[in-house]
Structure formats: C-alpha cells, structure tokens
Amino acid sequence: MKRRLFLASATAVSGVAIGSTVAAAPGFASHLGTSWAPLKGGRRLSDAGIAARLRLFGPENVDPRTGAFPQERVITSWLSNSSFAVAVGGRLVYLDTFISRLEVERGRTPLVIADLIDARPDAILLGHGHGDHADNAAYIAAMTGATIYASEETCAVLAADFARLKADPLVNADQKTRIPADAVLRTVPVTSADSVPGTEMIRLDVLEPYAQVVAFRHLHSVAVPQDPQYPPPRTEILVDPRDAALFPSGTSLTPGSSPQPGQMNLRTGGGSGGTVSIYFHITLRHGSNFSFGWQNTAGALKEGIGNGWSGTPEDGERIRGRLASLPQTDLHLATASTANYTNNGLRDLIHYQSVLHPRIFVPNHLTSGTRTREGCSLAVYAGYLEQMDLMEVPDADRPHVRWVIDPVDYLQPLAFDTDDDTWRDKSKKDRIKALDRIKLGRPRAVKAFVGKQRMTAGEHTHSCEV
C-alpha cells in the first residue's frame, strides 16, 4: 500500500480523515521527494507570481524557484464563498472568481485582486453568472490570458464586461491595472443558450491530457413547498455577532460615488441568464484516477425545478442520470447555501450526494447567499448534520466531512495524493472511456475595441455600447 497523503487545516480535519493527516510545514514537499510539474513552455513565473502561488497554496505545495506545483497532487485552496484555486497536473484553475469582502488591502479576506492575477491561472470555470460567482472573471482573464468556461449566456455577459473594463477610467488610471491593448477574452460556452438542463454534456480540454473534464447544465437553487416526506429544519442560520468587531471593514475594491485610490469596479453586469448553472466534474487519467466534482448551487432535483427553470420531476431525473454516469466522486466541492433552506433545509444538496456518493465533502457558498453570510459557517454545519438526520441517511452513506470556517480556512490548502489506493475504483476507467465519446468544446476569442465595442468570436458575435 502506498503512503496516503492528505493535507488539511486544523479546522478542516475535525472528522475522521481518509489517509494520514500530515501537518503542513515549510519544506514538507521535498521530504516526500516531490516531482514538480513543469510550467507551460518551461517558463518561470515572476517573483510576484511565485509569491502569489505561495500565498494561495503554501510553501509545501509550490516550488519556490519556479512557482511550479507537485505533479502527483491535486490541491484545493478555498478563496471565499464558492471560489477555489485548484492545482491539477501543474496547471492552475479558478473555480469561480468572486471574493467576499475584496478590499484594496488585505484584511478579513487575506487576498487582493493582484494576487489572483499574479498567480497566472490557466483557466476559470464559472458555475453560474451571478455576481457572487462571476465578479472579477472578465478582468482576471483579460489580464492573464486564462480561458473562461461558462454557460453561453454567461459568456455573452462577460464579453460585455470585458468591453466595459477596457474603457473604464479607474482601470486605466494605473499602468499596473490597465488591461493590455492587445488583450483578448477567451471563452468556451459549456452549453448552448436556453438549453434544457441535463440534455447537453460537453467534454472540455482545459486539463487534457492530464485529466478529463465534463460539464452539463443542472438546476439553480430555488424555494419550493415543504416536502411532506421530511420535517422542516430547526437549525437557524445565525451570524457570529462578534464578527464585525473582530474584523472591521477596510476600503472595498468596488468604488462608491467618490472613488478612493486603488478602487475599481470589476463586477459583472449580470443578466437574465445568471441562473443558468453548470456542474463540472474532473477525473485524472493516471494513478488512481482521483475524481472530484464542483457545484456552486443545488436545485430541487425531486421536483425538477430551479431558479429560472420551471421544470418537472423528469428534468430532475435526467440530471440524476448525468450525475450517475460520472466516475466515482472522491471529493465533492459543493454548495451549502440554498434558497430552499426555510422550507426544506439542505435536502437538495443531499439529493445530489445520494447519487454521487462522494468520499469527502468540502462545502462552499458559505459567505454570500440567500441565507448565508460571513460568520455563519458553524450554523450551516449544524444544519447540514440535522438534515442528514432528518433524512435518515445511514452513517455508511455519509461522506467524510471537511467543513471550512471563514476566514480561518481561507488559503488553507487540501492536498490529495493522486496515486493513493484510496481513490482506486474499478468502474472509473470504463466511465472515463464512455465520457471520452462526448464532443470536445474549443475556446473562442473575443476582442474589444474602444468606442462602439465589437467582439469577434468566430461564429459568435456580440456587440454593445460603452
């Protein structure tokens, strides 16, 4: 049996860990004989880039000479709300780009926008287009060349965001923040506009040939009548009353009526397609085929209804079928926030998990949402445990929970040994092979011009006025 590696923060390992729990320390990676994945083109990151990756992932997970990541690990780092930085096969991917309480200087949230840019992501995956998920995405992609993978509707909104940012005087006020004149916005529409949830599944090249990535539309959370099968939840989502005093607000990055130095408006314009939600699943092609899924919302599968989708139980069953076709989920990065909490608690999340059977669950959407706010994570945790009991989920069917609490678990990396036999499952290779028959999505480029904004993107064209 190979040595099992699982790195986690002290808060995150409050349950029973899969594999050995190892205290993170500088130089730890070298003690394991780490093989660093080469950066694209053999390049070396700038000193600022290396510093940003060290901030995101810690010294045990970043080569201090080049900024490279370990070849044999998948590493996740919670950035706030539903946003994660993930290192896979030597590449850096952001899952959502919204940052709770993003300020001009590091404060309660230990990040500034420059950190996310300097780290040089290769790609951005967006679960849906609401601001508490897609804010900052167009700017980060424009400044780094990262490709964005999102719904067709969200890609169109981001093209308009890009055009606005190119002409924004606050963005252009400083050479360091100005978008380069030759910048383009590369996007991959994961679903076609107005698609029916669960009918389109696409395979993405974002991590090939190291990992297979598939995605499909599912349901955004929504309130539905109380399910008579289960009693309503009793746990209230309470915010720690000490939070405001412990973590006073600084200067927000987003300006008010009188902009302050360093402020910029990087928020997305949003739109009617913001509720179009995408489920992403990533499976490594080597080792034990470590596999993880990410979703930043969970609709009512039982009723087949989501925000922006008045469906039927048939829609929910179709999505269940898509989830069931995926390789065994080792890690589930999933929302613990829902618009359905008052009536049905976290029932909808648990319905997703009843199909996926994840080994490990790490929650997200804890610092923004219909009910969730900064400082409420412990209450949500109690609500999740209560919902499991209300639905009488057997202990054997419950995932190992790695709960996270803001802000102490921001930038506390979880590292998974991709060769560990814990993740091995005989059915994975067959499911990878079956999903490889799905069509491959390709990037398209959007270029903005000052004045009337013209965005050319192959067969897709958008226009907007600044």
UniProtKB/TrEMBL annotation:
<feature type="domain" description="Metallo-beta-lactamase">
    <location>
        <begin position="93"/>
        <end position="249"/>
    </location>
</feature>
<protein>
    <recommendedName>
        <fullName>Metallo-beta-lactamase domain-containing protein</fullName>
    </recommendedName>
</protein>
<keyword id="KW-0732">Signal</keyword>
<dbReference type="InterPro" id="IPR001279">
    <property type="entry name" value="Metallo-B-lactamas"/>
</dbReference>
<dbReference type="InterPro" id="IPR036866">
    <property type="entry name" value="RibonucZ/Hydroxyglut_hydro"/>
</dbReference>
<feature type="signal peptide">
    <location>
        <begin position="1"/>
        <end position="25"/>
    </location>
</feature>
<dbReference type="Pfam" id="PF12706">
    <property type="entry name" value="Lactamase_B_2"/>
</dbReference>
